[in-house]
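We close this part of the discussion by returning to an individual protein. The sequence in question and its C-alpha cells are set out directly beneath this paragraph:
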Amino acid sequence: MKKVLISLLLSSVFAASSASALENTVKPEVTDLGITNPKTGLIVGNSYSFYNCGVHSYLRGLTREAKQSWKARILTMSSAMLSYHNVKDYLTPDKEMDPYAKSKPMFDVVFLQGQSNEPINAKRKATFQKYVALHADTIRKAGAVPILVATWARQDKPQDTRALADETIKAGNANHVMVLPVGLAFAESLKVRPDLIMHQEDKSHPSAAGSYLYGAMMYSVLFKKSPEGFKYQGGCEKPLKEADVKHLQSIAWKTVKEFYGW
C-alpha cells in the first residue's frame, strides 16, 4: 500500500510539473508567422546557434525527414550582440556565385539571436532594443519575416529565465516581431527531466539536447506542425537517445502551443 501511495504521489508531481505554466509574464502579440511553408531561412547569431554543428543542422534533419522543402544559411560570430551584425549586407543579393541571390526574396524568414544576457544587461539592453528595431525594419524591407530568438538562462542562473523571456518579448512586441521562446522550452524540459542536461560544462552553451530542442522549436514555428514522432536523433556525432528525442519533441510542441495560444 505504501509503495502504491508513493507511486501515486510521484505521478501527481510529474503531472503538476508537466502542466505548469510557462515562466513568462509578458504575452506575445505576434502569434503567427504570417506565411505558410517558408522555403529559405537565415539564422543570425553567435555561438549559441553555432554549437553542436549548428542549430540549422538539427532543423535540417527534421525537415528532411518530413520531406519539407527547406534550406538555410547560418551567419554567426563568437559572443556577438545583435549590433555586431550587418544584416542589410547579409540580405543584399549582389554577391558572386551566391545561390540564395537567385531567390526573391533571398530568404523567407530571418532568425535574430542575440548575446546571452543582452536583453537584461543594464549596459546592453538599450542597444539590444535599438538593433531589434533596426534589423526588423531591414529584414522586412528585404521581403523577409523577422523572428527574434529568446535564449535560455545559464545553468547556474535559472532565475533569469523569466526576465530574459519577458524583455525579449517586449522588444518583439514593440516591433511586431514574432518571438521564438527557446529559453522557456529549456526551463520546461528541466522541470520534467532535470536529468537531461541542456547546457555544456560551461553552464552557458547548449548541449546536444539543447541544440535539438532549439531546432525542434524552429521547426514547430516555421511550419506550425508538431515535431513529435520524427526518428531523427541529431547529428554531429552526438545522436541522442530515443527517449530523450521524444521528450524534447514533446516539450517543443507543448511550449509553442501554450506560448502562442495555438
The mean pLDDT is 92. The first helix runs from residue 2 to 18. The beta strands are 40-45, 71-76, 109-113, 145-149, 178-180.
